[in-house]
Automatic annotation (TrEMBL):
Residues 1-11 have a biased composition (Basic and acidic residues). Residues 12-23 have a biased composition (Basic residues). InterPro entries: CCR4/nocturin_mRNA_transcr (IPR050410), Endo/exonu/phosph_ase_sf (IPR036691), Endo/exonuclease/phosphatase (IPR005135). GO terms for molecular function: catalytic activity. It comes from the Eukaryota. This is Endonuclease/exonuclease/phosphatase domain-containing protein. Residues 58-252 form the Endonuclease/exonuclease/phosphatase domain. It comes from Sorghum bicolor (Sorghum). Residues 1-23 are annotated as: Disordered. The lineage of its organism: Eukaryota, Viridiplantae, Streptophyta, Embryophyta, Tracheophyta. Pfam families: Exo_endo_phos (PF03372).
Length: 295
């Protein structure tokens, strides 16, 4: 290799390192979110009504190993899980060990009255610093709960029309609303969402926080035609499910969903504000019918 060729090869390696570094910075400034009802083994039916997956360690262990494999492969900035079997130490340790080793900070919250399952939120430390963590207990039918995380971007963002950089703050909520066994429970589900938004407003006032992005994740157990959907849209939230499928608020789009998918799906809502600096959002969402896809 001539001196000129060695020089050109060295310059190419430097350019490649520079572009790789820029890709890393871009990736770390692009926020993704996965929300997933993983179907607790204590609820997953096997061959008959009285048989549950929790009775067969090999089944629930293998299924949850594959769920974690998928989560790690997606490498989301934020992971919000529902129906995590928090009553089983081995399963909890599995998630803590593997997600923790991948630099996620984990927060768990069991449903009230020892229901056995609960919520798990994991935030990747490359993307966010967790400033505060709160737990919200609804104390109503179904023993439902919610988690609130106040986070700050680990990487600074350049403000528009300014040379200064800021660490963008955001609020993340993870929840699992009551299953609507009949229409009379719709008001309970609506009240649960109202409590969440009230809690967010009170938290922002308590800490004197200005407008900021808010991400509501969870299993909403509802459809586009439901009151929860309409209420969240009225408050300025946008459904990731609608964005991914290019759905509008029209009645025509509301009827596009298959009946099986109108219930039992996890998705997230986001509320961005016209602030001088806003967190870039590359939204990836696993919208799943309660973990019932084959794994």
């Amino acid at each position: 290799m001539t001196k000129k060729q060695r020089s050109e090869a060295g310059a190419k390696r430097r350019r490649d390192r520079h572009h790789h570094h820029r890709r890393q910075l871009r990736d770390e400034r692009c926020v993704s979110c996965t929300t997933f009802n993983i179907l607790a083994p204590i609820y997953k039916r096997m061959d008959n009504e009285n048989c549950r997956e929790s009775q067969y360690r090999a089944y629930w262990f293998s299924r949850n190993e594959k769920i974690i494999d998928r989560l790690l492969a997606d490498h989301s900035s934020i992971i919000c899980l529902q129906e995590v079997w928090l009553g089983n130490d081995e399963l909890v340790d599995m998630y803590q060990k593997r997600l923790g080793d991948a630099n996620y900070m984990l927060f768990k919250l069991a449903r009230t009255n020892n229901r056995g399952d609960g919520l798990l939120t994991a935030v990747h430390s490359n993307y966010f610093n967790v400033l505060d963590y709160r737990e919200l207990l609804f104390n109503d039918i179904g023993d439902r709960v919610a988690q609130l995380l106040h986070v700050e971007s680990a990487m600074p963002f350049l403000q528009n029309r300014s040379t200064s950089c800021v660490h963008q703050q955001s609020l993340i909520v993870n929840t699992h609303l009551l299953f609507p066994h009949d229409h009379s429970l719709s008001i309970v589900r609506l009240r649960q969402v109202y409590k969440i938004l009230q809690y967010i407003e009170a938290y922002q006032e308590e800490h004197k926080l200005g407008p900021m992005p808010i991400i509501l994740c969870g299993d909403w157990n509802g459809s586009k035609r439901g009151q929860v959907y309409k209420f969240l849209r009225s408050q300025g939230f946008v459904s990731s499910y609608d964005t991914a499928h290019q759905y509008s608020d029209s009645e025509e789009d509301a009827h596009k969903e298959a009946p099986e998918d109108q219930l039992e799906r996890s998705c997230f809502w986001y509320h961005q504000v016209p602030a001088p600096s806003c967190i870039p959002f590359c939204g990836e969402c696993i919208c799943t019918p309660e973990g019932r896809q084959p794994l």
